[in-house]
Amino acid sequence: MIDLTGTGLPPRVRFPSPADGFRVTGGQGAEGLGRPLDQELRSRVSSTDLSRMRSDTGSSNLSVRSAPVTREVSGYAAQPPYTYDPEKAKALLAEAGFADGFNASIDINPRFVQSSPLAIAMISDWSAIGVRVMPRELEHSVWVDRLRAGKYDMTLAPNFAFTGDAEWSIGRLYVCANKRLGYCNERVDELVGEARRAVDAQRRQALYEEIDAILWQDAPSMWPFELVVNYAWRNRVTGFVPAPSQVPDFSRSVRVTQ
In the chain, what are the domains? Predict the structure, then answer.
């Protein structure tokens, strides 16, 4: 809680939101390379200094991600932070056959306000390892069409989990049969299927802990940041509990006094 007493403003609460975060994803058939980005995307994870980027963008509501899903999501399991290591990134590129780097583009939807400054900051780091990326701002409907078709080199997208459960993101994006991101890992499919059938909460959490670890290692996407959402309400409102989904829930005992 941020105390704003005496300012004439209502109190403000900063609250982690599972509905929001960002991911960078390589296309199913990347336009600039003619094949999906796998090793190439992993190289960019190692070449991106997220702590510095958070500082440079001047955004106080960004938190460095620590898993494929955000902290408030059921199924979250913290992973070891990626190490900023440009030399390792160059080695991964060379191993993938791109010792001299390559050219690519990244789709940006300006409807998501923080997308552009984040993309520019990442592009700067990637250029140091020879990955030359052109930002491509697109009208919302065009961006969505390209996202759904997988017709992009990279895209910067929000990572929503409206239900507050990992199934919403992982079961939708990283399962082979859905063919969303060009990623397929049969072990992930097996674990997701078992988690869907599990009725014991602890067993389900254990399954998602393994899923999170596999995805973090495979890096089918790059998960740079999650968002901290600001909520504000006046002192005469009682019983209000911020909803991580950002959809206000007034079904609880919310009261407004005179």
Answer: 12-164+223-235 (3.10.105.10)
Give residue for tokens 């994870």: 45
Q: Are 104 and 134 in contact (CB under 8 A)?
A: yes
For the stretch 171-196, pLDDT in tens is: 998 999 988 877 889 999 999 999 99
pLDDT higher for 238 or 188?
Answer: 188
What residues pair up with 64 in beta bridges, in sequence order?
Answer: 225
Residue 132 CA to residue 134 CA, distance in Å, equals 7
Question: In this structure, are residues 126 and 133 in contact, taking their beta carbons and an 8 Å threshold?
Answer: yes
d(C-alpha 123, C-alpha 24), whole Å: 12
The count of other CB atoms within 10 Å of the CB of residue 120 is 16
The answer to whether the CB of 212 falls within 8 A of the CB of 69 is yes
Type and span of the H or E element at 255: strand 255-256
- Give the contacts of 97 (CB within 8 A, at least 6 positions apart): none
Q: Please name which of 144, 153, 148 lies closest in space to residue 126, comparing C-alpha atoms.
A: 153
Alpha helices in 78-114 (DSSP H): 86-95
Report CA-CA distances (Å) from 106 to 18, 80, 116, 138, 143. 24, 26, 10, 10, 11
For residue 75, the model assigns a pLDDT of: 93
The residue type found at 159 is: N
Residue 83 and residue 66: Cα distance in Å, rounded?
Answer: 12
Half-sphere exposure of 110 (CA within 13 A, CB side): 5
Kind of pairing between the strands at 225-232 and 62-64: antiparallel
pLDDT value at 47 more than 50: yes
